Amino acid sequence: MKNFLLVFIGGGFGSGLRYIISISLSQYAKIFPYSTFLVNAIGCLLIGLIMGYSQKEYSISQNQMLLLTTGFCGGFTTFSAFAKENLKLIEDGEIFNFSIYLLGSIIIGIIAVYIGFQVFNR
């Protein structure tokens, strides 16, 4: 039950922050899904930082990892919105923006996790 509550609390904070960022960038969403792109890139960087720090310092408990990675990062990032926005770009005939969003999100996400991890493991 404690693990569930940790994920629930972390996910609530992550989702809330994602909502604030989405509202802040909503005026730009008609051109490109910037808010989802940004939160997913930041979330990837954060999970890399958390993983790298925990491996190097060993000062993050399993409960903290659950709260921060599965909870906060899981609630903050969003694959369902990413998929929905890609479908919308295809439906709108925005194949160039679709390609940039799809490939950019995957490549930037992997690079961000790697960079975050490397910050503490050099």
Short summary:
The protein has one domain. It has helices spanning 2-24, 34-57, 62-76, 79-91, 95-119.
Poorly predicted parts: none
Terminal residue distance = 37 Å
- The total count of strands amounts to 0
Q: Name the overall outline.
A: globular
The SSE string, one letter per element, is: HHHHH
Portion in helices? over 70%
Helix count?
5
What gyration radius follows from the Cα positions, in whole Å?
16 Å
Mind describing the biggest β-sheet? Answer: none
How many domains would you count in the coordinates?
1
Strand content: under 5%
- Provide mean pLDDT, rounded: 93
Q: How does the helix and strand content classify structurally?
A: mainly alpha
Task: Describe this protein's structure.
The protein has 122 residues and is mostly helical. It has one domain. Helix content is 82%, strand content 0%. It is globular, with a radius of gyration of 16 Å. The mean pLDDT is 93.
Attribute tags:
mainly alpha; 5 helices
Q: How are the SSEs ordered, and which strands pair?
A:
Blueprint: H1 2-24, H2 34-57, H3 62-76, H4 79-91, H5 95-119
Helix pairs in contact: 1-2, 1-3, 2-3, 2-5, 4-5
